[in-house]
Structures are given as C-alpha cells and as structure tokens.
Amino acid sequence: AASESTFKFLEIHCHRRVHHQQSETRAALVGERLAALLGCQPEDPCLLVDEVAYSVDLMPLFYGLNHFRGDSVSFRQICRPTLNITIL
Q1: Type and span of the H or E element at 60
Q2: How many whole angstroms separate alpha carbon 39 and alpha carbon 11?
Q3: DSSP states of 5-30
C-alpha cells in the first residue's frame, strides 16, 4: 500500500495547505510503557518532539507528539529566513 504524507493528505482531502510547522525537541524520560514500545529502558535518554503545523492564517492543522530513542536519531534543519509570520 502506498503511503501519503500528512501535508499531501491535508491538501488533497481537506483543501488546507501547511504554511509552516513549529517543533520543539527536548530530552525526556518515557516511562515503562513507552520504553517497552521503543525497545529501551525507562532511564535511557530519549527525545520528545512536540509539533504543530499551521495554515497561512495561523489555523492549527495538525499536532504531533513523537518520542525517539536518543541513540537512534539525527536531525537536519532547513531554515527559511524570508518567512514572515504576523500574529494577530
């Protein structure tokens, strides 16, 4: 089965386009349940990524809360310095 990105799904099926996304990444302890799902120990370093995507009129379009093992993740950041956001 083919997968579809969240961005494409929102555009095609909801007629909403993601303008920008804000993410916060921080260290977190995950507890017994999430540690079992991630295949690590509760005291192992993990990363929590909390994200919200917005439309051009600042309407939240989706929210994500993701947990990653600290020993199996890397990040690449792409900056777009010409983006202007007006908060109403």
Answers
A1: strand 60-69
A2: 35
A3: -HHHHHHHHS-----EEEEEEEEE--
* CA nearest to 38, candidates 70, 65, 63, 64: 70
Token readout for 7 is: 């961005």
Q: Shortest CA distance to 58 belongs to which of 24, 84, 9, 20?
A: 20
pLDDT in tens, 10-35: 999 999 999 999 999 999 999 999 99
Q: What is the residue whose two structure tokens read 């083919």? A: 2
Tokens of 38: 């991630």
CB atoms closer than 10 angstroms to residue 3: 6
In angstroms, the CA 49 to CA 28 distance is 10
61, 54 Cβ separation under 8 angstroms: yes
